[in-house]
């Protein structure tokens, strides 16, 4: 059997260009041409060959994106390096299947005289939506997130979500491929004109929307002074009982230091599990945290584990507490979307040989309600760590009337890998989709303030001890995405089903 080295090279090239489009590399412009080698690789191939080349490109892409799984599983799961590598490869193979199904379907439709430009954008969007929702969902670095820094372009996310940008990227890749091959000659000029008009409309919408949103927030009467505390606590000692007092002392020092000056904070935010103790239990450390809010004369929002007693025993939760200026506990939120293998092990009966990565406590239990936390008449929606990459959570908060999104996280797990940068690139879109400010407090970084246009106003460096200060405008702005959710992606699903259904019916006839 002859090996198709050219096809293999082109598929690997596509996968490589794709992961280079994302942080840390952030060569976002490569996304607009990254699929072209893959389209050339499947030209004239059978459906089986197209599927295999798509899987190869997908695996290459995902290895470049999630290679940090090795770092996490070695350092915190205590896996031997070979087993950690195997876990990452298996995960990348699963994600690569979506790309394989994509090339299989577009190849099938192309053989029936349907050009890629009319099929691929819809099918990619459908598969990306499936990946984001199946098996608890993994929307990590969907294609549209590669454009997180192109502010004018990404304003369309308040209509289509990130899927609209993924659709556009695939459309442009296919258009360039059609022009390069002069396939469907009669249509290529119409396709090119359509592409130019589409991009023109999206950029025009972006310009209009940026102007109107800026105006709305400039006229906002409510301004909140927010201070974000990045404690930079070493993950190796964070859960050590002997280090708890020192951790709180570090946060005390930074929080009170932040109050020195002309601007008095209204809200101080600490990261996820910044307090590595059961805050609900009255102790010296509990009283220390209460005193910090009193001394700072500010609301204090911080992360800590909590529990509730049930017949089966104690259920642990990853929580956020809000303490008022007077030292009263005025709100609590329990994380609703847990990290598989990080906070619990799914199918533990089958995967008994795998332990989770979070040290210091047992398996967490998911909270049941998205409860906004209120301070001084302002409602905040709390996104703990992983929840920031799920747009439906932020959207539900916005529907419940929140004025501000707060992402508290601990990305120390990822070390100096690209994961903290990738994580940050995704939460930017939550601010655009809901047209609210988003503030982010991370244990080791990246802490940041993102405005409703998706611009990062200020951010910290990784593995530094910092205080981020900012003024947050409060304005009520509705969006199509907030009202209707992923209607764009669901429309793509309907169109794809109709398209495939018609062709299958014709084939039978």
SSE order and pairing:
Layout: H1 5-20, H2 36-41, H3 47-66, H4 68-75, H5 81-110, H6 116-133, H7 157-160, H8 162-181, H9 185-218, E1 222-230, H10 235-238, H11 244-258, E2 267-269, H12 284-296, E3 299-310, E4 313-323, E5 329-334, E6 373-375, E7 378-384, H13 391-399, E8 404-409, H14 419-434, E9 437-442, E10 448-450, E11 456-459, E12 466-474, H15 480-484, H16 487-508
Parallel strand pairs: 1-2, 2-3, 7-8, 8-9
Antiparallel strand pairs: 1-12, 3-4, 4-5, 6-7, 9-10, 10-11
Helix pairs in contact: 1-3, 3-5, 4-5, 5-6, 6-8, 6-16, 8-9, 11-12, 13-14
Measured distance between first and last alpha carbons: 35 Å
Query: SS-based structural class?
Result: alpha/beta
Rg over alpha carbons: 24 Å
User: Considering DSSP H and I runs of 4 or more, what fraction of the residues is helical?
Assistant: 40-55%
* Strand order within the widest beta sheet: 5-4-3-2-1-12
Q: What overall geometry do the principal axes of the alpha carbons give?
A: globular
Question: Low-confidence runs (pLDDT<50, min 5 residues)?
Answer: 349-353
Beta-strand level of the residues, as a percent range?
Answer: 15-25%
Report the biggest beta sheet as strand number plus sense, adding barrel if it closes: 6 strands, mixed
Number of domains: 2
What is the averaged pLDDT score? 91
Query: With helices defined by DSSP (H or I, 4 residues minimum), what is the helix count?
Result: 16
Q: Count the beta strands.
A: 12
What letter string, H or E per element, gives the SSE order?
A: HHHHHHHHHEHHEHEEEEEHEHEEEEHH
